[in-house]
Amino acid sequence: MRASRPKVAIAAVAVAALAVAGCAESDRDDSSGGSKKDTLVFGVAGDPKVLDPSFASDGESLRVARQVFETLVRPEEGGTKVTPGLAESWTPDAAGTTWTFKLRSGVKFHDGTEFNAEAVCKNFDRWYNAKGLMQSPDVTAYWQDVMGGFAKNESADLPPSLFKSCTAKDATTVDLAFTRVSSKIPAALMLPSFSMHSPTALEKYDASNVGGTAEDIKYPEYATAHPTGTGPFKFKTWDVANKTLTIERNDDYHGNKAKLKTLIFKTISDENARKQALRSGDIQGYDLVGPADVEPLKGEGFNVLTRPAFNILYLAMNQKGNPKLADIKVRQAIAHALNRQALVDSKLPPGAKVAENFMPDTVEGWNGDVTKYDYNPEKAKTLLAEAGATNLTLRFHYPTEVTRPYMPNPKDLFELLSADLKAVGINVQAIPLKWSPDYLNATTSGAKHDLHFLGWTGDYGDAYNFIGTFFDRQKDEWGFNNAALFAQFKDADTTADAAARTEKYKALNKAIMDFLPGVPVSHSPPAIVFGKDVTGVKASPLTDERFATAEFKS
Amino acid sequence: MFRFIVRRLLQLIPTLFGLSLLLFIWLRRLPGGPETAILGERGTPEMRAAIRRNMGLDEPILVQYGRFVRRLIRLDLGTSTSTKRTVVTEFVERFPGTVELSISAMLIAIGLGIPLGYLAARRRGRMLDHLSVGGSLIGICIPVFFLAYVLKAIFAENLGWFPASGRQDPTLGATRITNFFVLDGIMTREWDAAADALWHLVLPAVALASIPLAIIVRITRASVLEVLNEDFVRTAEAKGLTESTVRRRHVLRNSMLPVVTSIGLLTGGLLSGAVLTETVFAFSGIGAFIYEAISQRDYPVLMGFILIIAVVYVLVNLLVDLSYSLIDPRVRVR
Amino acid sequence: MTITGGKKKEKIDRLSELAAREDERGVSLWKEAFRRLRRNPAAIVGAVILSLFLLVALLGPFFVPHPPDAQLWKGEIRLGDFPGFRSENWFGVDHIGRDEFSRMIVGARQTLLVGVVSTLIGLAVGSLIGGVAGAAAGLGGRWGRAVDNVLMRFVDMLLAMPSLLLAISIAALLGAGLTTVMIAVGVVSVPVFARLLRGSMISQANSDYVLAAVSLGVKKPKIALTHVVPNSLAPVIVQATLTLATAIIEAAALSFLGLGNNDASIPEWGVMLADAQQYLDSAPRLAILPALAIIVTALGFTLLGEAMREALDPKLRK
Known about the structure:
- The complex is a heterotrimer.
- Chain A has helices at residues 5-21, 59-68, 117-128, 141-147, 199-204, 221-225, 271-279, 294-299, 328-337, 340-347, 377-386, 410-423, 435-444, 463-471, 483-493, 498-515, and strands spanning 39-44, 73-75, 82-84, 87-92, 98-103, 163-170, 173-178, 233-239, 244-249, 262-267, 285-287, 303-306, 311-317, 353-354, 393-400, 427-434, 451-457, 518-523, 527-530, 534-535, 551-552.
- By secondary structure, chain A is an alpha+beta fold.
- A 6-stranded mixed sheet of chain A has the order 14-18-13-17-15-16.
- In chain A, α9 (328-337) runs antiparallel to α11.
- Chain A starts with a helix and ends with a strand.
- By secondary structure, chain B is mainly alpha-helical.
- Chain B has one domain (87-333): MetI-like (MetI-like fold).
- Chain B has 13 helices and no strands.
- Chain B has helices spanning 2-29, 34-39, 45-54, 61-73, 87-122, 127-141, 144-158, 181-187, 191-228, 231-238, 243-280, 286-296, 299-327.
- In chain B, α1 (2-29) packs antiparallel against α13, α10 packs across α11 (243-280) and α11 (243-280) runs antiparallel to α13.
- Chain B starts with a helix and ends in a 7-residue tail after the last helix.
- Chain C is mainly α.
- In chain C, α4 runs parallel beside α7 (178-205).
- Mean pLDDT of chain C is 77; it is low at 1-8 and 15-27.
- The radius of gyration of chain C is 24 Å and the shape is elongated.
- Chains in contact: A-B, A-C, B-C.
- Chains A and B meet through α1, β1, α4, β10 and α7 of A and α2, α3, α5, α7 and α8 of B.
């Protein structure tokens, strides 16, 4: 009898399976089964975190938002210049604190709600009047980065708000008033985090109710399932179990309608896996192409697009970490010791450049007339000897298992630069750390680091977004306190006249390169690749690629 | 038997509390926290402090643990700090992938491993023995991630037989019910979706199965060899039982004990293999997600997932222990 | 056969005759095993691989043509274009301009170190836990069961923790590096050794000769030490040989995740393989060479280990 036991079990399972099979309905729409040539699957490196860009600061969430939402002003296609978006024109008043935006008419949100001045104000008021957990820096990161605080700051750490009020003058005219002049306006309004949402949908799905208890912030339904914008694509599904997010064409779009019917973002975190998925036809494009893969992929006929380099990789020197680094001569010696050109030639993608400022030369305020530190090991040795810093040992942090657009292969870069340092007699103690959070934690807090790599990709075309982020106040990352420099930043940021401001940024760049808090290493152009038969996408330095123009060549 | 099961399940409770306390303290002793991971390059000390305050991470560890336990009793595992979705939602959407992958891998490993190991032992020293032992040796000696790349390079990139990534072709727009894609496809009669999900399982399951397969072959072979030399087998043969009867009644059954033990152990090890396999195949599952959660210092996800995995693991091994007494009546569970 | 009271030693000797055949030839067991090992082709292949590997690992570093961490050919490195096989660099130049051949040779030593040390960690700690638990379970009684229970629940906890999580969090505390890899790989194999030793001790404890010994009145601890433990070691030896090989492979997996030894002056195969992932297209040899080295070495360990197990197993001696 015992032998029959497995058979009974199998029969039971079969019966159960059949019983279940009877009770489920397929809810698949058959329209998706048509021609595959209007569906693009694009490989991305990470899952998006949230669908409401007001709460997003990660590149993958913003990439989706850029297709579904639109902003008042937007970067020119393939560039960083401010061009019309949902606003057709904009002008500041004489004081430079109130900006009048003239809106495009006849625009509708995906849910049919009309886009007008009132909708704009509802959006700004929503951000400005954020309460409770919505004021947490991880929830409204970009608002806080640009605007500082809120109507009622609930934390003493928050600065006063730059934003003051929004007034709808008529259906297509809106005034945005600010508490002071800032260089960030209007460029910062290009950020996807300032996307226009449908006021109806915001209300319906309780979009401002960031709830839960303090320790578990819960996003409202709007942010996880109902993003409603004006963009060329509409949100369809987010299938976490298959790591895909699907958006589809908005047939009522006010501009040129998307050529693709369906666009699917598929998460493939491993760089080689993305490449293999492209070659085997799983996906028809992906972002963050390894520098060494650019030429092979081009050779196979794939469309590799290179973005203009809008980033900076620097080697930071922490003056608190090692008192010797507080000596300008030692810092200069390190700058002269590094063969940055060799690094750019051998490790960075074609088109990469050695950096002379802490910002790329496409941003206004870049200064070609700064102190330059050429590769000169002899001079480095002399400087070290003058400073009495022979037999110097430095702790050199570098991150593992990470690729950033500005830093495609940190370990290789470390190997090259540490050999340069050893060549001038500096001992290097290698400290590899996992990027998140160990490396970030170690390099941006405390004083246990001497040298480390870090960098930045610009959010919009503004000098302050680069050098201000690094040097406008005292930071553990650098360990110096240079009050004169900080004052110079404040002065530049509050200069209303654009031309005068640019001059001040140039002066700042010169001051920074004389002070030499770190060594700017390189600007490297990140690559994005599309299938052999996919055309129409223009690479953007801000990663603002617009998939609406993508199409399959027949 | 029933008392044995109840006792093992009751033992689970202190184990879980011990594990959760150790884990809770261990995780919080690691340098950095979720706030660093969330903010990335943009973080400032003030922003980090604000998030720590918001998440209650500035309180004493035992206070935090007390809060965790109070919620755990209500079966509330909290919310992921990186995705802001509840831990339960994350688990429900990601666990099925790992289960499908692990079951497929174990089916391959057991289905091939036991027969191969058995045949190798019966034909000890002959061609088949050398082939299956040699093959399984090479399987165990290739690093899983390298094997995954090689498998993909051959069968996906060059031959195009199998897909290189994911659990299912997203353009199918398949219906989701349980998130077990194969089961969903069968339940909704979306046969193409079910077949496609199976198709996506082949390469990752083969990669994941390489090590368990090799181990099962070797343990089966060793164990069968041992049993073949036992007196009772010779007695059985001598008393004129047919070879197949001897094989079924005596050899296989008596040699299964170590094999079953190793299957129980291997099931636990699958998850580590799944981290690599899921990463390289962009396969949505808990392995890669837990790995990501460590990078994010996503305490609620790590606590919740590891506790659930511990429960699953203990249950699997309970089944293994129960199967001992089925296989070998001499072993009595108490 | 009658057993007359007498000394305990006598009892045990009698018992050995009764139940265990392995002791009858004493020292010659090992001689016999070695003799049979020499006749097994798999063992010879494994031994040849391993002696080559040991030779390279121990002596190779003194004879390398170039220092393994000197970027002598940095100037010739272009993105995705590294000098390949040539007379100056037998295995070509790696992605940083170093001599690949020298790195492979020096890498053998690190790989050996990782494999041996981590296996020893796992074997020592695991056998200790498993042995104590098994003995306690065999002794029975309230305390025996309690000790066994506590130890095995601890092992369960270790097992239920995904091993990579352990490894990664160890790395977060100690920093990525060689020690971390060895500890992490070692710790991962602890529960396997523990459960295996305990399991086979329990099944030995139920075997006839132990029952006979018990009925003869031999003290249980003595039985555990003189009979149960030695006879339970066969599966542990199988596992140790497997672990030696898998330790090298697991170290490579940790390197793939960025947790490996990162000191450029002491290259290691796992790290080399992981670093080469970026250049799979442009210089596949940088991945294939260390991968082959790892596979062949692991193969050597398992071939020899398996053959040794067979040779030592008294039941397979006929």
